[in-house]
Description:
Elements: E1 20-24, E2 26-28, E3 34-35, H1 40-49, E4 62-63, E5 65-68, E6 77-79, E7 86-88, H2 89-95, H3 102-108, E8 114-121, E9 127-129, H4 133-142, E10 155-159, E11 163-169, H5 172-178, H6 182-185, H7 190-198, H8 205-220, H9 224-241, H10 249-260, H11 265-269, E12 273-278, E13 283-286, E14 292-304, E15 310-313, H12 321-327, E16 337-338, E17 341-342, E18 347-350, E19 358-364, E20 369-372, E21 379-391, E22 397-401, E23 405-408, E24 414-428, H13 431-436
Antiparallel strand pairs: 1-6, 1-23, 2-5, 3-4, 5-8, 6-7, 8-14, 9-15, 10-13, 10-14, 11-12, 11-14, 13-16, 17-18, 18-19, 19-24, 20-24, 21-22, 21-23, 21-24
Bound molecules: zinc ion (ZN).
Amino acid sequence: MELAPSNSNQQHENNNSNKVQGLHCSVKNYEWGKPCRDSLVAKLFSMNSGSLQSSQLDEDQPYAELWMGSHVSGPSFIVFDGSQQRVTLKSWLLENPNVLGPKVVEKWGGDLPFLFKVLSVDKALSIQAHPDKELARTLHKLHPDVYKDGNHKPEMALAVTEFEALCGFVTLKELKAVLTVPEVVELVVAENVNSVLQITDEDGEEKVKPILKSLFTDIMSAGKERVAGAVDRLRSRLHKESQVRQLTEKEQLVLRLEKQYPSDVGVIAAFFLNHVKLAPGEALFLGANEPHAYICGECIECMATSDNVVRAGLTPKHRDVQTLCSMLTYKQGSPEILRGVPINQYVNKYIPPFEEFEIDCCILPQGEKVVFPAVPGPSIFLVTVGEGMMTTESPKGYPITEGHVLFVAANTEITVSSAPQLHLFRTGVNSRFFQDS
Ligand SMILES: [Zn+2]
């Protein structure tokens, strides 16, 4: 990949050539990822790493996540043209804090506040939630092996293909229906079921929360054998009933999950959560302590720089049921879906309610040009389709093509032009952060 025009340490002294840097990014082969041949992550990763020998794709591996950023668990490296030198983005930022802009340095120190990812999901991810800052600090202190950093991790998923997820708890009305599912009822305390049935819509969400918490905790902490029995009975009953009636969408989903994670408590827990289907271009954001599980599809994801996940179902990984059940907000109802705000003809901006990040999606038809105005913080650009040129105020342009990832310094205006059509995503610090501060 020939991106950065500079090829030596001189750039450390030369501010101008600091402005755009090509990045080589890390990949994660989690077992829920799409098989190599179908995975957008695999495709982008192989184009991103170009001729690097270490980056040969392994056809037998799933390719789940591409990480673009400075997190130590999946670092990105600065590309120095014609050099074997590999410097992590993190260490380069420490040497060149000016590229982050003073407001970002003041707030977050000499590091990127966000982590940018691409996800190719073949099989459901664990039912999880991310701690708020206070809980993250406590968990990190208590179990640094499991909770690797002390940061919170709000996140946003922007669908590239149709993208399915479980997210947040269902409404009271739906919850009452869930409590008619025999395999759910057998795992919970009967008194909790009765309490829910007595609540009316007028009582409001606050009254539901403590009982919902007890019910969900009953399910999640039920013994392995009881759960396996319930999941088994659920599967046979639904198979039988599917002969004589159309199963609901949730029931069909539950059968899919059961195939992926037989005997797992997450199959039953799915009844309690909203099943969300995002069309390409729609986004879902998740605040602290909201339960969710991505089910399938491909998305662009952005989050605060953290890898803190509390898991409790649909996973072979470490489960922390107690922490999960006690941390959740138990907020009910469908999540808000973002469709982006058009900034101009070609760029849509997605602004979640978190100060660390926002995402721009740019779809540029053949032979067009678009300007990304200078912003006071750093950006990362990812090209997912097509090719073109990226230019700053300096006359030298950067040819860009599918799989290229570029770090752009604060206060740099970027012009992008397309050869054939070009799709790119930009993430940066939330524009509201600069407005408010
Ligand atoms: Zn998550």
